[in-house]
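Table S7 (text form). Paired inputs.
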Amino acid sequence: MIIEPGYLGYLKYEGDTVEEGIMDARDAASALLGFDEAFRYCVEQEKPTWNREDLNLPVRIEKGCWQILIPAGLAVFAGQYLKSTAKIAAEDGLFETSAAKDLNRILKASLSALVWLVKISKHLGAVGDKSRASNAKIRDSDHVVVLNDQNEEIVVTKRQFDLYCQCPKALLGQCARIIDENCELEIGRFENGAVIDSMRIFPEERTVFYSEKEDSEIILPELEHGKFVSLEGEITRATESTNTIGFHYQGHTLFCRPERGQKIASFKQRIISRQDDHIFPRVHLVGVVNRSDKHGGFRAKKPEIVFSEILSIEMISGELL
């Protein structure tokens, strides 16, 4: 693996499946969203005040592997946090500011926490399972001895142990879903030009992190987070007090809201039918899929649509006639 300056860590897939650095579009989206969710979760444990939208994770494709890299310092951030440090950076030099140094420290700690989360999960055979961690013993004020069913033990810090116990069980599911007999996953951190704190998930360990049940429970899985869509369906309600509408699509009623700054009242000519036998018309709803969940990830069971346009099918038909 080529280690270039300016990067703190990585997630990579290796094996015959990605031998030419090519990954199926759905798998690539799953890897990106999965790692984004897991890394953001760890960052938030280190710095809860950071905005989840401030992270920016680049992708690099090389022959023999497909990887996501974590840049050092401010390069990984966009948005309000970056703006708030820009003035200091301009005065003191980008990587000499206390803010940038604090960023690197927290990013390194977050990567290390994610690696240890994988290590503890492999050791216990599950992610975020408090019952499997119930045999843990306190070693000293800052360390815990974790025992598994084979009575094997590893020593972790109390912070690492708490992170494991508190994390969502499906946190690494999206990343691990792609693993098969021809593809392995590795997460690691760089320090002084070398890889440290790395952990690899092998095909036989896939079920530790991912369950087929996760996908079976998702409603309309083809509607992936962030995907731009134009859906044909029927409006079932319009609630001005919450600025939302109900949209019936393929047997499911979806919660929908207009994109930021818009009101549903501005769409009323397209929401209300001109026909006397019904109130709401069939429409094309144009917008972006949102699967943000309560854990701060993107694995909500049912998607919502943040729409930018509503096109009444009966109005379109009338114009054609």
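Next pair, protein 2 of 2.
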Amino acid sequence: MVLKKNILTVIFFVNICVLTCFASALPDNMKIKNGFEEQGDTLVCDVSKGEARLVSKEALQPGFYAFTAEYCTKGFSSSGQFASDVKTSDRSSSLSGYEWYSTVSEWSPILIYFRVEKYGHIQIRWGNWKNADTSAKLLLRDINISRFEMSEVIDKNILTDGSFDSSQEGFVPSDWFKKIHESAPGDIYTVPNSSYRSGKYILKMTGDGTGGAMLQSRFYPLPQSGELELSVWARSTDEG
């Protein structure tokens, strides 16, 4: 009987350890600086508290890196937005572009490329919340930072969501950002695909012909030399 109790005790502690390991929302090389709280496998940011930051635990070697995760928002209007960027730990240098993100009600992919030029620690900032109520929140999960080599995109589509399949109906695709001129009526959003060759969604751009609408991708690292090819399928309801 003593032997059986000991065996059961060992199994019990092993199970607790496994569950604890899987509950972490952050990879081993990152930690919360401010603004986020861990809730199981998810990071939750109360946007009413201002800027939120994640920092690296260890210094990174020079090179290209990719921050990947999934995000969703709560308490934002349909035109809600927020921004993110990567900087050195002392904020003296920007390591990425200043990226804008649109609100999404379901989990959507997020990708930030950044370049470390000098050996050191980095921080990822989240903030500049727009059209969010006092209870609005940003949620992140499946967070990871990994080295990125330019050879990985040679002869490949560098757009992470060029098909818009990770989008949601009525929203801007999660890996894109829209800019609408205030004086020109119009909008950009996805609708279910009913006529194109394949894919769940297509992008719809509306306007009165006076201009002002633009869809902007994320910042991508590009080769120092060579040619880039852009291809797209499009159609217009205006016969002119």
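Residues 1-21 have pLDDT under 50 and may be disordered.
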